[in-house]
Amino acid sequence: MLTKRIIPCLDIKDGRVVKGVNFIKLRDAGDPVENAAFYDKEGADELVFLDITASYEKRKTTLELARKVAESVFLPFTVGGGIRAIEDIRDLLNAGCDKVSINTAAVKDPAFVKKAAARFGSQCIVVAIDAKCKTKTRAKQAWEVYINGGRTPTGIDAVKWAERMESCGAGEILLTSMDYDGTKEGYDIALTRKISGSVTIPVIASGGAGSLEHLYDALTEGRADAVLAASIFHFREYRIAEAKEYLRKKGVTIRP
Amino acid sequence: MIAVIDYGMGNLRSVEKALELVGGRVKVTSSQKDLARCEKLVFPGVGAFGAAMKELKYRKLVEPIKAAIAEGKPFLGLCLGLQLLFEKSEEAPGVKGLCILKGESKRFKFPKDALKIPHMGWNNIKFANNPGARILKGVPDNSFTYFVHSYYVKLKDKNIILTTTDYGINFVSGICKDNVYGLQFHPEKSQELGLKMLENFVRIK
What we know:
The complex is a heterodimer. Chain A is α/β, with parallel strands linked by helices. Chain A has one domain: Aldolase class I (TIM Barrel, Alpha-Beta Barrel), CATH 3.20.20. Chain A contains ten helices and eleven strands. Chain A has helices spanning about 30-40, 60-70, 85-95, 105-110, 110-120, 160-170, 190-200, 210-220, 230-235, 240-250; strands at about 5-15, 15, 45-50, 75-80, 100, 125-135, 145, 150-155, 170-175, 205, 225-230. In chain A, strand 4 (about 75-80), helix 3 and strand 5 form a beta-alpha-beta unit. In chain A, helix 1 (about 30-40) packs parallel to helix 2 (about 60-70), helix 2 runs parallel beside helix 3 (about 85-95) and helix 6 runs parallel beside helix 7 (about 190-200). The longest helix of chain A has 13 residues, at about 60-70. The two termini of chain A are about 15 Å apart. In chain B, about 25% of the residues lie in helices and about 30% in strands. In chain B, the strands form two sheets. Chain B has a nine-stranded mixed sheet with strand order 2-1-3-4-12-11-10-7-8, sandwiched between helices. By secondary structure, chain B is an alpha/beta fold. The longest helix of chain B is centred in the C-terminal third of the chain and has 13 residues, at about 190-205. The two termini of chain B are about 10 Å apart. The interface of A and B includes residues 5 and 122 of A.
């Protein structure tokens, strides 16, 4: 049976890991390769690197990172952040990453996703959606898509957007709730469930994980195919094996 | 030398690196000469069925691949590389595959709200009783491997099935016929057990 995936997410700036400073045994907490190797050993099902490098010139270091990670770790990994052109995707895939995550560029030009999927295959095109609830009441909840790292509202409905991205050839949706991100109060279950039920491609829930129960809720009630988490793993609040054991005991299909 | 067949569709570094790690002498190549003189071939699947066949034809690699297989060289097709061994695919109606084995690729089809497509993530491989299962040596039955695909192989000769996997249906996730191996999953992305399979392939005499 296909298992639900646990995906740690690492923020990368200028080729270094900037979140996840609390690793005890790592020689250099900022080294992406060591972080990748650590999570590989811990039993992560995939890895996501989010490039938050401000300057375009320094992006070359991200390619170097992808190359180094690919040389040392044999599990799938995704790089996202600042991808604007077909060449950006080509360079990242050539450097060895398995999937790229596209966000702002998809909104600015949906045909870009179509082109990317046609050229490289849907399996490596993840569309990241940052969504924020725009309704006050729980009834008929609706969410709006934001871009530029959550700074710019687009007026686009998140559910319709997910459907559109699927039709453009996206292979997966990485869905982040801006309302819950960083709160540690749990994923936005209503949002995740709504989007997961609206598309046939897999959905990764992101934003808000604070406990193992939150992972469980997103994977069951939220119908997510995978959960992304940053701080609960970085700061060693929970080990990945611990999360997996918890989920397995509660009846979720998980890779040992 | 193990030739990793490059047909211009994408990155083959992870396959190359994984084979090197387990002791293979590897060359990523699209030269007919290399395919003629290599000892083994690995055929990674990148891109779509139609585009891949077009590139193989354009690079004049179809006949060299068939010749190498006919000579008995160990051959390993991965993901789309497995599907291309067969006659055709729903992904590219009208396009002929390599036609080395009988069968075709079908798209997963599930009722709405059932299973997601692509089949993406870690799933078990169940061993069939294939006598050619050397590639699985040291790998436990029901091991988890990493899959990303929307099409699966439907074949004629059940005797060549190496492994099967459940995803809505029980589909063929691995085949073996004489010197030809094909895996629907990505051993190069399946951590130690995937590397073990590649090591077994590298060690085939």
